[in-house]
Amino acid sequence: MDSTSPAPSAPSAPGDDRADQTDRVILESARAELGPLDRGDLVVLDDATGALTSAALEEVAGGAFRVLVHEASAQRALALAESHPAARREGRLVIAGLDGTPQDLGGLLEGSAPQVALARLPKALAALDHRAHALARAGVPALVAGGRVKHMIRTQNEVLAGAFDEVHATRGIGKSRALVGRGPRAGDRSAPVLEGGADIRIRGEQVRVPLRGVGGVFGGASADAGSLLLLAALDRAVVAGGAPWAADAASSADAQAASSTADAPGAAGGDSLAAVDLGCGNGLMSVYLRRAFPEARVLATDDDLDAVASTRATLDADADADADAGPGVRVLWESSLAAQAPGSADLVLLNPPFHDGTAVDATLVHGLLDAVSRVLRPGGELWFVHNSHLRYRSEVEHRVGPVRQRARDRRFTVLQATRG
């Protein structure tokens, strides 16, 4: 990463004391490269602190230009929206996925006149590749993406060079620096979607299912080993008759009128099985649920926009599967089942995240378990997989209900918890 651009002039990010070194190097590098940031719409990607959005709104204040935000996390997007209500009402702040705005970056930028995109470097190279090509295809003339030096590698330059004619690194501020891409490549290709697949058993039959990966979704287009262990254990239980809700769901297709009692599966919202893939990732478990229970009402939900796009792409790739007789799958971008009613689910599958950025954070799962406890009906089940060394059994039992171990190997453990 050669430093060939002017050094940032001052380590400041006006108007927001939440700005960290990375925010400051992004903003000051953009000003050093482009001059005043008031000559077009400003695009902000993955604003971890909220400081980039606040600074961008100050830059365009009083003018005709807007700040267009693409924030991968639903939770952070809502927090940004709540922090700037006036700017949203006035149309100066537009956030992807909110207020009817398209969720994809290309849709967000359609009809805009951007001067520059300001971004945090994502952890995954695939995410950087996806975002860079989406920006170039939309004609964004420059990208300034910052990160901590210890997490930056030369391959990031090479990824950006696939979408922009000129790429260079800035000098740093403290332990952060930025990469600058200028001159979007004419006729740039569409943002890449990875293609793959997995072999799983569905009601005892070995089946090959397609997988798709968009941006930085966990696992890309490959099957995660933890999810495979969970699905194998779940399918054994279904075949052996060890999942009462599965038997009830099958009978409900033939006897809907007789199965509408308060304790029947899905009673909170209908007679069919109500199943949730919480943290749907690339859609592997959503495909299983749709194929194994074609009459079920399946909800796939994730806080991450790349995961939501990946699940939709996977389900589209699997569209010719023999699973379109029932209600199908709803795919939602939301944080911790925030929009779902209490007691509305019979079954939740969960392979939760254990990393916050590049750091392991074993507490990330606590809010998800609380959300599961709220959404499951009494007698409903959570099937949960976790890294074996994290020892989550007592946490699941405390937050959801009685626990039974269903599978375990050297790396992962599968637990079944029943809501009391």
Topology:
Layout lengths: L20 H14 L6 E5 L5 H10 L6 E4 L3 H10 L1 H5 L3 E3 L9 H5 L4 E7 L4 H13 L4 E7 L5 H8 L2 E6 L6 E9 L8 E10 L2 E10 L10 H16 L3 H9 L21 E5 L5 H9 L4 E6 L2 H13 L11 E5 L11 E6 L4 E2 L2 E2 L3 H12 E12 L5 H7 L3 E6 L3 E7 L2
Parallel strand pairs: 1-2, 1-4, 2-3, 4-5, 10-11, 10-13, 11-12, 13-16
Antiparallel strand pairs: 5-7, 6-7, 8-9, 14-15, 16-18, 17-18
Biggest sheet strand line-up: 3-2-1-4-5-7-6
Shape: elongated
Number of strands: 18
The termini sit apart by 56 Å
Oligomer: single chain
| Average of the residue pLDDT scores | 88
Helix content range: 25-40%
Summarize the entry for a quick read.
This protein is an alpha/beta fold. The protein is built from 13 helices and 18 strands.
Notes on the protein architecture:
Helix 6 (125-137) runs parallel beside helix 7 (154-161). It contains 13 helices and 18 strands. The chain has helices at 21-34, 51-60, 74-83, 85-89, 105-109, 125-137, 154-161, 225-240, 244-252, 284-292, 305-317, 364-375, 393-399; strands at 41-45, 67-70, 93-95, 114-120, 142-148, 164-169, 176-184, 193-202, 205-214, 274-278, 297-302, 329-333, 345-350, 355-356, 359-360, 376-387, 403-408, 412-418. 52% of the residues are buried. By secondary structure, the protein is an alpha/beta fold. A seven-stranded mixed β-sheet has the order 3-2-1-4-5-7-6, sandwiched between helices.
